[in-house]
Amino acid sequence: ISLAQHLPKQHISMLLWLRTKHISLNQHLFYIGKSPMPNCPHCEEMAEIVMHFLLSCSHYARARHILTSTHHCHTSSLSYLLSNPKASVPLIHYVNSMSHLWPTFSDISPQPHNDR
Fold first, then answer.
1. Nearest to residue 64, comparing CAs of 79, 50, 53?
2. Exposed, middle or buried, 30 (CB in 10 Å: 0-12/13-18/19+)?
3. Mind listing the pLDDT tens digit for each residue in 53-74?
4. Which residue has the higher pLDDT, 72 or 110?
5. pLDDT tens for residues 86-96?
6. Residues 58, 28: Cα–Cα separation, whole Å
7. What is the mean pLDDT of the chain?
8. 6, 11, 25, 2: which is closest to 96 by C-alpha?
9. Is the CB of residue 12 less than 8 Å from the CB of residue 4?
10. Residue 48 near residue 25 (C-beta atoms within 8 A)
11. Longest CA span, the chain
C-alpha cells in the first residue's frame, strides 16, 4: 500500500500490471491469444517479459541510462524497481519515456507533487 498510496489510479494500475506480469507485452499477449508471437519486437530471440522490457532490451538502453543517471535508481534490480516506493516515480518516468505501453496507458507522465 505504501508503494502506491501517493500515486494516481493510472500509475497504480501500471505498477500492478508490471508486478503481476499481466501487461501488454508480447509474452502475456501471446499467452492470452492476442499476439502471434511472444518475442520482443526489437530482440528477435528474447521473449518480451517484464524483466526483459525493463532491464535488458537493447532498444531501451538509452532510457535505462537516463533513469540511472538522473534518478540514481537501481535499474539492475527488478525487485527494487517494482517494490521500493522510492523507485515508483522514476520507474513511471522510465516506462513513459519508452512509449511502448502508450496504447494501454496513454501518456503516464507523473504529475508534479505539490506539498501544501
1. 53
2. middle
3. 999 999 999 988 888 887 776 7
4. 72
5. 888 888 888 88
6. 20
7. 80
8. 11
9. yes
10. yes
11. 50
Please name which of 114, 113, 111, 115 lies closest in space to residue 93, comparing C-alpha atoms: 111
pLDDT band at residue 80 using 50, 70 and 90 as cut-offs? confident
Cell numbers given for 106: 496513454
3-state secondary structure of 47: strand
Let me know how long the chain is.
116
Cell 524483466 found at: 51
Residues 6+ apart with CB under 8 A from 10: 105, 108
What cell does 29 get?
499477449
C-alpha span between 7 and 25 (Å, rounded): 23
CA distance 27 to 44: 13
Any idea what DSSP says for residue 7? Answer: S
| Angle ∠(99,94,66) on CA atoms, nearest 5 | 115
